[in-house]
Amino acid sequence: MLSSRQRRSRILAGCGIFAVGFGGGLAHAAKPFLVPNSLVVSSSTYDRTQGAVASLSVGTMLPDTATSTTTAVSDGNYVTVWENESVDASFGVTSPIRLTAIEPHSGHVFGTLVVPVDQVVTSFPSKSELGLHVSKDAGGFHLVFVGYGGAGVGAIDASNSDAVPGQDPTNPVTFAFGSSYAFPRTIVSVDTHGSFSYTPTVNYGGNNGRAALLASNGLYYSVGNANNGNAAKFGTLANGTSPDVTETTGVEVVTPIDATGWDVPIPAGNSAEVDPLIQYPLGKNGALDKPGKDNNYRGITEFGGALYFTKGSGSNGMDTVYTVSSLPTVADAAQSIISVVPGFPTDSARATNGNYTPFAVFFADPSTMYVTDEGTGSSTDATTHAGLQKWSLVAGSWQLDYVLTRGLVGVVDLGLDGADGPYPDVTTVGLRNLTGVVDQVAGTVTLYATTSTSSAATDNGADPNKVVRITDTLASTTLTDSVAQEKFSTVMGPTYGTVYRGVAIVQ
Description:
By secondary structure, the chain is mostly beta strands. 5% of the residues lie in helices and 34% in strands. It contains four helices and 29 strands.
C-alpha cells in the first residue's frame, strides 16, 4: 500500500506539477531539488526587521522566572541582541530556514529553497537545530528536519516555549507571554521536487527539537530536549494538563502526518518517547537533574536497523554515544532500551573524560564510525576529543583510532563586518552535524560537517560558522604521517549574520 506521501508524489508527477517552497503553496519547477550526489546544507540568516524583535528595545519585557519578568538590555542589533541572555535565560529569536543543494566538490549551487516562513522557522542562535537526513523510498527522496510551527520570523524565546498550550505552567516563557504562546516542534519533509509536508508534534516543550529522520520502517525518529520549568518530578502536571512535558523529550518515535501545513490537529498518542523516565546520577556532584533533562540528545542516525544518537551538552547524565538496537514503534517505545554503544564512555564525561562532547555520527561501513565533537566552546580550553573522531569496531567493541583537527581547531576568521557593525573574531573549536560519502574504488571517505565556534560574543550559537570537508583513508586506524596531513577545507562560510546547521548527502 502506498503512503499518503507516495500517493501525493504520484498525483503531482502525473499532472506534470513539481512543488517548490515559495510562500505557502505550490509552484512549478523545471527540475527536481534533491539531485543525486549533491550536498544539501541547512542555514539561517538573522532578520531583525520582522516580528517582535523588530520593536525590541532596552526595557522591553522578557521572561525571568515562572513568577516574574525582566527587561531587555539590548535592541535587535545582530551583534549585541544576544546580550539579552544575561537577563533572560530563554532568549532567542526565530529566523528563516534556507536549504541549499550544491555539488560537493566544486560548490556549484544546484538550487535553493526557503522553507515557507508562515509554516516553520528555526531559532537562530540554537546551535544544535536543523540537523538534516535524507532517505529514499518508492516516492523518491525525502529530506527531513525539525522546526517551530507557526512561530514566524522574529519571534522571541520560541525555542523555550511550550510545544502545545498549557503544557507547562511553570515555564517562564509561558508566564511572560501567556499559555497560548506555544509552537509545535514540527517535523518537515521535503520531497525530490521540493514540496513540503509537515508533522507537528507535542514533543520538546520548553526546549528544542534538534534532528529527525524518516526510517526504513516509514516512521519518524527525532531527538531533542525538553522542560524549561521547575517541575519537581515525573508524572501528571500540577494543573492536571497533559501531555507530561517530562515524557516528550529524548528520542521520540512519531507517526507521520505529512499535512500540507503545520496547523493541523495532533492525534492523541501520535508519538512516544523511547525508554522514558531514564535518568543518570552522573551530573554535577553526581546528582540527578530535573526531570526530562537527562534525555538531552542531539545527533541521530539509522544504521543496520538500529538507531544511534548522542548526548554532549548539559550538566547532567553521560555525554556519550547511545543506541537502540532495533526500530521501536509508538506502541513499544516505552519498552525499548537505550544503551551506551560498547566502547564509548559510561561515566560522567565532564568528570573524567576530558569534556567529551559528541554531536553527530556517520557510518562509513559496519566497522568504521565517525563522530563529531564540538569541543567545550572555549578557544583556550581545547580538548583531545574536539574535531572529527574515527572509531573502529574490534571484537564487538568500538575503539578510538584518532581525531582529525588539522585546518580546523584553532582557525580564526577575521573581518566579519556587516550592517550592524563588526562581529567579534570567530575561532573554530570543533564540529557539529556530519555526513559523508564513501569511494570504495579509492578506499576513501569524504566527510562534510558544520563547525562549532568560540568568540567574544555572548552566544556562540549566533557566530558565523562554516561547512567544512575532509577526506580520510578508510582503512587507516592510526595517525600515520599521511593521515596526519589530512586537512579540512572550507565549503561554505563564514557569512556575516548567517549560521550553517545541517548537512546531508543525496545518494
